[in-house]
């Protein structure tokens, strides 16, 4: 919403605050100001010039003009506009002037004729085509006849105005009008609002003799029509065009411009029909019929449905109620009789229609958010009087309306104690009374209680909390006392919060980036990594891609990898900590929300350079990230796992923590990789609840050994199917006291070993905390280990 400071000053005459002051004050009292701009910013040396004479340059469209700009001699300016005439006053850019895009006007020569300036159209001053009443090909802009030659053009075109851009929240739709903003500013500074007045004079002929109204829908609380005869359609006066353009609206003609002016002034959308095109003396307001068609003012044919409200005459739609009028009753230069409409329409219905046709208008945006229901008739009368002043004609006597709708004013009560308790203040009754009176609330005081009758222009106020908010913002949020919560217990993070923070630090230290995926997915994706389990469907999903609650986060991570790799970001390492939704026995049928950690990595660990080869990500890299997370936990095991259909059966491990299944890590199945159109990818999933439940209760400090460790190597020949985990378990099972570390350093198969066999070599590290181990102690330990390996995995010691 663009607010003209000049217009605002006319509505609040005693306002002395500058536009910059309003920017800060309004923002701190609840209506955010985006900024203040001046249309003339960056423009200079633009004056009113009068064309004294002109001559055509042969064989061109150019003219050599003599232009009076208030100097001793007229300036010679070459111009190609087609609407030049002697006596015309126009915008003249002098040599050295700045126009749009910081273009500087210089002395020039065209077809042998010197030119000392430029005659301008509005677009050359930076006026957007969206609000410019003249097309560029129509020529230069004609200034008012009373403009004084040599004066700056800015005051005449209100380009010296200051435009305050407001960001209106849905709860303050009352500020979508000049009157609404004027009341707000007046309340802030304790001033009075002075309304504009146009006296309505009616003819003896009755409106009811010309037209009747019938409403056949509950979505139209009231509908009113006035008839204005013998109007003369023409351009609006410059002051009106200026106000509309500064408000962001394109001037059309004197009748349409008045309806737009009233829209900005009252916030009441109006519509003007060419009454002569109705073809009937009855207006029927109803729901549209499915398949019914209407060509709107934007020249687009629209097929309507029964959800739309239409204005009809002679059985045909002539307007899409609350959104846009029909082309068949558009005001044109030939219009003589105007039917002027004012109404209330259901906000939800208007919103649906506007969204369905992607047809957002100034009218629809106000109907959607609500309008002042008490000023519908007032706005209609104001517009009718204004049209007769600008377009002539006469207003027929009376208003034809569906009913005499009058809104019931809301009363809200609140005590002084409740206000002070909520805000932490010690305001007096007189202070609160002053605030409510400044806001225009009719007030009765009953002891400690305020009984406020809310004016219809503030339809956002209904309950006690609304009154508290009004007091807070008008008193000043910056004046409210700030205190810490009164408690003896300092807050701390929950175990879940602590674990999540720790996981984030570990994963980001490993080079992974956090992502947040959708909780909703497709039925097909919900089964890819979770198997055939029950899923939760939405009753009214937004789309087919978002209709089922996820049972695994992996599909969402694969989608993100696809998005990145399609944009040449080949190396992707991401993680997500979030909830998955699994079947539960809840009586209301709700799924169980289980917190999970999911990891997905694809691409290379290191990129190719002059001194280093590319290192692709593999299973062991992904497993290493998981091992780093689980460092410090007891009894972590990895075992082969081939039951997950979404994972590679030979490169996937199930993760166990203290004999509980924690999750899995491995390579995504090549078929799924192809389906998602991504490179080879490795993933891992961990159950966060189990990580919390299995956190070791105590960390035992071990003294730094005083003696060196001793290592021994051992090489085994085992069957091909024997895993490292089984050998590791066999070594640990002997509980050798001083065995500190087991490290695999070599694996090979084939050759002289024969089929089905492999060799695995380990380094075993022994260390006693107090004394250097003897050869006998080490040999005894090695014998126990070799015996265990022979018994448990049938290993042959080399």
From TrEMBL:
<keyword id="KW-0963">Cytoplasm</keyword>
<feature type="domain" description="B5">
    <location>
        <begin position="407"/>
        <end position="482"/>
    </location>
</feature>
<keyword id="KW-0547">Nucleotide-binding</keyword>
<dbReference type="Pfam" id="PF17759">
    <property type="entry name" value="tRNA_synthFbeta"/>
</dbReference>
<dbReference type="InterPro" id="IPR005147">
    <property type="entry name" value="tRNA_synthase_B5-dom"/>
</dbReference>
<comment type="similarity">
    <text>Belongs to the phenylalanyl-tRNA synthetase beta subunit family. Type 1 subfamily.</text>
</comment>
<feature type="binding site">
    <location>
        <position position="460"/>
    </location>
    <ligand>
        <name>Mg(2+)</name>
    </ligand>
</feature>
<dbReference type="GO" id="GO:0006432">
    <property type="term" value="P:phenylalanyl-tRNA aminoacylation"/>
</dbReference>
<feature type="domain" description="TRNA-binding">
    <location>
        <begin position="40"/>
        <end position="154"/>
    </location>
</feature>
<dbReference type="InterPro" id="IPR020825">
    <property type="entry name" value="Phe-tRNA_synthase-like_B3/B4"/>
</dbReference>
<comment type="subunit">
    <text>Tetramer of two alpha and two beta subunits.</text>
</comment>
<dbReference type="InterPro" id="IPR041616">
    <property type="entry name" value="PheRS_beta_core"/>
</dbReference>
<dbReference type="Pfam" id="PF01588">
    <property type="entry name" value="tRNA_bind"/>
</dbReference>
<dbReference type="Pfam" id="PF03483">
    <property type="entry name" value="B3_4"/>
</dbReference>
<protein>
    <recommendedName>
        <fullName>Phenylalanine--tRNA ligase beta subunit</fullName>
        <ecNumber>6.1.1.20</ecNumber>
    </recommendedName>
</protein>
<dbReference type="GO" id="GO:0016740">
    <property type="term" value="F:transferase activity"/>
</dbReference>
<feature type="binding site">
    <location>
        <position position="469"/>
    </location>
    <ligand>
        <name>Mg(2+)</name>
    </ligand>
</feature>
<dbReference type="InterPro" id="IPR004532">
    <property type="entry name" value="Phe-tRNA-ligase_IIc_bsu_bact"/>
</dbReference>
<keyword id="KW-0030">Aminoacyl-tRNA synthetase</keyword>
<feature type="binding site">
    <location>
        <position position="470"/>
    </location>
    <ligand>
        <name>Mg(2+)</name>
    </ligand>
</feature>
<dbReference type="InterPro" id="IPR005121">
    <property type="entry name" value="Fdx_antiC-bd"/>
</dbReference>
<dbReference type="GO" id="GO:0000287">
    <property type="term" value="F:magnesium ion binding"/>
</dbReference>
<dbReference type="Pfam" id="PF03147">
    <property type="entry name" value="FDX-ACB"/>
</dbReference>
<dbReference type="GO" id="GO:0009328">
    <property type="term" value="C:phenylalanine-tRNA ligase complex"/>
</dbReference>
<keyword id="KW-0479">Metal-binding</keyword>
<dbReference type="InterPro" id="IPR002547">
    <property type="entry name" value="tRNA-bd_dom"/>
</dbReference>
<feature type="binding site">
    <location>
        <position position="466"/>
    </location>
    <ligand>
        <name>Mg(2+)</name>
    </ligand>
</feature>
<dbReference type="InterPro" id="IPR036690">
    <property type="entry name" value="Fdx_antiC-bd_sf"/>
</dbReference>
<dbReference type="GO" id="GO:0000049">
    <property type="term" value="F:tRNA binding"/>
</dbReference>
<keyword id="KW-0694">RNA-binding</keyword>
<feature type="domain" description="FDX-ACB">
    <location>
        <begin position="705"/>
        <end position="798"/>
    </location>
</feature>
<keyword id="KW-0820">tRNA-binding</keyword>
<dbReference type="InterPro" id="IPR005146">
    <property type="entry name" value="B3/B4_tRNA-bd"/>
</dbReference>
<dbReference type="InterPro" id="IPR033714">
    <property type="entry name" value="tRNA_bind_bactPheRS"/>
</dbReference>
<dbReference type="InterPro" id="IPR009061">
    <property type="entry name" value="DNA-bd_dom_put_sf"/>
</dbReference>
<dbReference type="InterPro" id="IPR012340">
    <property type="entry name" value="NA-bd_OB-fold"/>
</dbReference>
<dbReference type="Pfam" id="PF03484">
    <property type="entry name" value="B5"/>
</dbReference>
<dbReference type="GO" id="GO:0140096">
    <property type="term" value="F:catalytic activity, acting on a protein"/>
</dbReference>
<dbReference type="InterPro" id="IPR045060">
    <property type="entry name" value="Phe-tRNA-ligase_IIc_bsu"/>
</dbReference>
<keyword id="KW-0067">ATP-binding</keyword>
<dbReference type="GO" id="GO:0004826">
    <property type="term" value="F:phenylalanine-tRNA ligase activity"/>
</dbReference>
<keyword id="KW-0436">Ligase</keyword>
């Amino acid at each position: 919403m663009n607010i003209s400071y000049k217009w605002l000053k006319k509505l609040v005459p005693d306002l002395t605050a500058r536009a910059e002051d309003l920017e800060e004050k309004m923002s701190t009292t609840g209506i955010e100001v985006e900024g203040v701009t001046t249309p003339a910013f960056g423009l200079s040396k633009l004056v009113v010039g009068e064309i004294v004479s002109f001559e055509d340059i042969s064989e061109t469209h150019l003219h050599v003009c003599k232009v009076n700009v208030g100097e001793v001699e007229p300036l010679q300016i070459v111009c190609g506009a087609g609407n030049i005439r002697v006596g015309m006053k126009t915008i003249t850019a002098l040599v050295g002037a700045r126009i749009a895009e910081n273009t500087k006007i210089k002395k020039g020569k065209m077809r042998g004729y010197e030119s000392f300036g430029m005659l301008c159209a509005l677009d050359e001053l930076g006026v957007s085509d969206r609000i410019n009443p003249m097309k560029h090909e129509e020529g230069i802009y004609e200034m008012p006849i009373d403009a004084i030659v040599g004066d700056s053009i800015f005051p005449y075109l209100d380009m010296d105005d200051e435009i305050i851009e407001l960001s209106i929240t849905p709860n303050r739709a009352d500020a979508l009008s000049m009157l609404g903003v004027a009341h707000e500013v007046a309340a802030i500074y304790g001033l009075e609002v002075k309304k504009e007045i146009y006296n309505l004079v009616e003819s003896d002929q009755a409106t009811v003799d010309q037209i009747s109204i019938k409403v056949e829908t509950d979505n139209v609380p009231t509908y009113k029509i006035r008839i204005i005869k013998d109007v003369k359609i023409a351009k609006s006066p410059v002051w009106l065009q200026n106000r509309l353009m500064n408000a962001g609206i394109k001037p059309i003609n004197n009748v349409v411009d008045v309806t737009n002016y009233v829209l900005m002034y009252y916030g009441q959308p109006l519509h003007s029909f060419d009454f002569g095109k109705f073809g009937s003396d009855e207006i029927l307001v109803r729901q549209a019929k499915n398949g019914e068609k209407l060509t709107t003012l934007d020249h687009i044919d629209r097929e309507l449905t029964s959800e739309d409200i239409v204005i009809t005459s002679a059985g045909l739609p002539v307007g899409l109620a609350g959104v846009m009028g029909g082309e068949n009753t558009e005001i044109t230069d030939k219009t003589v009789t105007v039917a002027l409409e004012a109404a209330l329409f259901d906000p939800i219905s208007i919103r649906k229609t506007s969204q369905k046709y992607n047809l957002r208008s100034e009218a629809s945006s106000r109907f959607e958010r609500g309008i002042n229901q008490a000023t519908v008739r007032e706005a209609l009368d104001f517009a009718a009087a204004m049209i007769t002043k600008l377009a002539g004609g006469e207003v027929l006597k009376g208003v034809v309306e569906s009913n005499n709708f009058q809104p019931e004013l809301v009363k809200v009560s609140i005590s002084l104690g409740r206000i002070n308790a909520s805000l932490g203040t010690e305001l007096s009754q007189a202070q609160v009374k002053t605030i409510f009176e400044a806001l225009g609330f009719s007030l009765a005081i009953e002891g400690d209680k305020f009984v406020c009758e809310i004016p219809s222009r503030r339809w956002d106020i209904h309950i006690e909390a609304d009154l508290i908010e009004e007091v807070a913002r008008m008193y000043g949020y910056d004046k409210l006392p700030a205190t810490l919560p009164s408690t003896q217990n300092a807050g701390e993070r929950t175990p879940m919060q602590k674990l999540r923070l720790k996981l984030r630090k570990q994963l980001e230290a490993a080079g992974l980036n956090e992502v947040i995926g959708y909780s909703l997915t497709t039925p097909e994706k919900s089964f890819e990594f979770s198997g055939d389990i029950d899923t939760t469907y939405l009753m009214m999903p937004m789309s087919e891609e978002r209709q089922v609650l996820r049972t695994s986060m992996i599909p969402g991570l694969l989608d993100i990898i696809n998005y990145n790799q399609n944009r040449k970001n080949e190396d992707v390492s991401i993680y997500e900590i979030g909830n998955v939704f699994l079947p539960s026995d809840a009586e209301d049928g709700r799924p169980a929300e289980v917190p999970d950690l999911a990891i997905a990595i694809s691409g290379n660990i290191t990129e190719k350079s002059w001194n280093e080869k590319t290192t692709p990500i593999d299973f062991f890299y992904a497993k290493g990230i998981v091992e780093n997370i689980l460092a410090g936990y007891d009894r972590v095991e990895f075992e082969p796992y081939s039951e997950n259909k979404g994972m590679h059966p030979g490169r996937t491990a199930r993760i166990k923590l203290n004999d509980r299944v924690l999750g899995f890590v491995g390579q995504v199945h090549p078929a799924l990789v192809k389906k998602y159109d991504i490179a080879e990818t490795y993933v891992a999933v961990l159950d966060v609840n189990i990580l919390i439940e299995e956190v070791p209760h105590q960390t035992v400090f071990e003294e730094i050994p005083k003696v060196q460790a001793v290592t021994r190597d051992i090489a085994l020949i085992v069957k091909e199917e024997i895993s490292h985990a089984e050998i590791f378990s066999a070594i640990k099972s002997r509980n050798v006291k001083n065995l500190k570390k087991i490290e695999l350093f070599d694996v090979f198969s084939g050759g002289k070993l024969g089929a089905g066999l492999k060799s695995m070599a380990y380094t075993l590290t022994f260390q006693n905390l107090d004394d250097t181990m003897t050869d006998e102690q080490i040999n005894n330990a090695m014998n126990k280990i070799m015996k265990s390996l022979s018994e448990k995995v049938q290993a042959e010691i080399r």
